[in-house]
Amino acid sequence: MMAVHAHPDDESSKGAATMAKYVSEGVDVLVATCTGGERGSILNPKLQGDPYIEEHIHEVRAREMAEARDILGVKQEWLGFVDSGLPEGDPLPPLPEGCFALQDVDEAAGALVRLIREFRPHVVTTYDENGGYPHPDHIMTHKISMVAFEAAGDPERYPEAGEPWQPQKLYYNQGFNRPRTQALHDALLERGMESPYGEWLERWHTMGRERTLTTYVPCGDFFEIRDKALIAHATQIDPDGGWFRVPLDLQREVWPTEEYELAKSLVDTSLPEDDLFAGIRNN
């Protein structure tokens, strides 16, 4: 299994419990990280203003990624592209020269094709066409993933990238979905607890079309590992922040799965699924 992500920390906030589950079952899991996150802001207020971190953010985030990788038990490779940053303002400023989001899609996909052919995954996960949210690096991750999935098995494309290998299934991460968010919100209120999801639900209609959830992977036993991996990205995550306001026991009771949208499949499968390898394991 290969999980393609834009930045270090994305692997721990999107599908981390799924990866930890499959690792526990003996599945070989590789995270492909497109950029180094070098233009990411320091989002943890406890670390903001630290001059060493600000000056060495690339190295710091690489160390955080190594720790998270070890917690999850996965392998990890860098594709070597440069973080595009998240442009803000009106009008939006141009993206920085040389960044990931400005690369030629077919050329950039070559790095991912090479990694797919080396690792030989049966399943690939990535982002949908909106990037999950419209960060330019997330959208670019989607674009190169789509090209690489189709090209990796074609001996006439990217012949310099190694022997062809065709993955069997491609999924979009859809862990941030309305049914899950609504269920957790309602459960918190029913128990007299504060919900961090009220504002999200109020503006959900502005966040794009509802996605089709096809695959629900039971992985509640691995939520604690997921959270530990996320906290390892200390510059990006406040351990006292909103990510961790829903007790794990409540999450396991109310919504013990992570969700995906099956985008492409070269094997027969029946929807909904509870396994990313459905249709593959018995072939």
What's the assembly state of these chains? Answer: single chain
Q: Sum up the overall morphology in one term.
A: globular
The CATH homologous superfamily is termed LmbE-like
* Poorly predicted runs: none
CATH topology-level name: Rossmann fold
Give a count of the beta strands, DSSP E runs of length 2 or more.
Answer: 7
Task: List the strand order in the largest sheet.
Answer: 3-2-1-4-5-7-6
Query: Structural class, from secondary structure content?
Result: alpha/beta
The CATH architecture would be 3-Layer(aba) Sandwich
Number of helices: 10
| H/E element sequence | EHHEHHEHEHEHHEHHE
What integer value in Å does the Rg equal?
Answer: 19 Å
Separation of the first and last Cα atoms: 16 Å
Key traits:
7-stranded mixed β-sheet, 283 residues, 10 helices, single chain, 7 strands, alpha/beta, Rossmann fold
Topology:
Layout lengths: L1 E4 L4 H4 L2 H9 L5 E6 L15 H5 L1 H16 L2 E7 L23 H15 L3 E4 L9 H16 L17 E5 L4 H13 L7 H5 L12 E4 L4 H10 L15 H7 L2 E9 L18
Parallel strand pairs: 1-2, 1-4, 2-3, 4-5
Antiparallel strand pairs: 5-7, 6-7
What does this molecule look like?
The mean pLDDT is 95. It is globular and about 60 Å long. With 283 residues, the protein is an alpha/beta fold. The protein has helices at 10-13, 16-24, 51-55, 57-72, 105-119, 136-151, 178-190, 198-202, 223-232, 248-254; strands spanning 2-5, 30-35, 75-81, 123-126, 169-173, 215-218, 257-265. Helix 5 (105-119) crosses helix 6.
